[in-house]
Amino acid sequence: MNDPQESPIRLVLVTGMSGSGKSVALTALEDVGFYCVDNLPPELLEAFISLEQGLRADKVAIAMDVRSAGSLPGLPQRLALLQNRPQRSVHLTTVFLDATTDTLVRRFSETRRVHPLSLKSANDQHRALTDAIEHERELLAELREQALVFDTSLIRPAQLRSQIKDLLGATQAPLTLVFESFAFKRGIPMDADFVFDVRMLPNPHYEPELKALTGRDAPVARFLAAQPEVLRMRDQLTDFLRDWLPQMLRDHRSYVTVAIGCTGGQHRSVYLAEALSQTFASDWSTRVRHREIGDWPARTQRATDVG
Fold it and tell me: What is the Cα–Cα distance from 174 to 284, expressed in whole angstroms?
């Protein structure tokens, strides 16, 4: 008989679009101690978890995708049953890796791989690939709605590995807030739950001594903290999130991504992402990622240290 005090199995289901980086994510999870299995048929999910119950790991990551297309429609129900099983409990996180259609077409073209749903006999292979990708989106739409989404369109594999390790390698918290800065000129992140536009705020780009710096550098932070409009935006975003995050937690959300965009993704959005992360760190687990500048260390003092 199982010990009722036995710790739950932590299960990460990795799914998403073909070519979006699932193998990279699985490798990152293996690096932080997950026992990983690729392309497990959904029909074997419960049997596999039962097998793991008394064996090797309390952290398991399983990749499932459109290669098991015939079984995908019933997967959400299987996951619900798994979480409500009377045996050792399961804490589930579903990770969905996504990318724009243009990005996926380019990746398949560069690697000369065949999409799992593509018709090899089609006369127009580019059209066949595009149709296969859109069909895949339809098949995976329900899973995406329930998942923590990573948009891999504009990030390198090393950045994806870092984000996966940062978000899923640590001890699970009731709710994790991810503050992400980005540049509107390179597109809105597909993984965002909230998107805020701060392009109307004073721009350090036009200050010669600040142009080459980022919002993580103290001189930029001091400049922005002295602007009443920036402080008003920060306070209004704080109030909005404080109002709605408890409701999202009651809706069983584990991760919320707040994307903040400016023109170049270097100054205003970076500063506000850092400032909001610091504001909410006392109440929630918070993470910061900067799409356009990576997670490079600040060249001077961290912006969050200068008030």
Answer: 8
* Residue 142: pLDDT band with limits 50, 70, 90: confident
Write the pLDDT tens digit of every residue in 27-74: 999 988 899 999 888 888 888 887 766 555 688 999 998 887 666 777
* Residue 272 forms part of a structural domain: yes
Per the structure, the complete domain to which residue 230 belongs is given by 176-305
pLDDT (mean) for 109-137 = 81
Cα distance between residue 162 and residue 299, in whole Å = 20
Is the same domain home to 161 and 225? Answer: no
Residue 143 tokens, joined: 């899973």
Same domain? For 291 and 235 the reply is yes
Tell whether 119 and 211 lie within a shared domain: no
Instruction: For residue range 159-176, list pLDDT tens digits in order.
Output: 999 899 888 876 566 788
* Among candidate residues 168, 187, 203, the one where a domain is terminated: 168
Mean of per-residue pLDDT scores for the chain: 85
On the 0-12 / 13-18 / 19+ scale of CB atoms within 10 A, 75 is: buried
For residues 67 and 209, state if they share a domain.
no
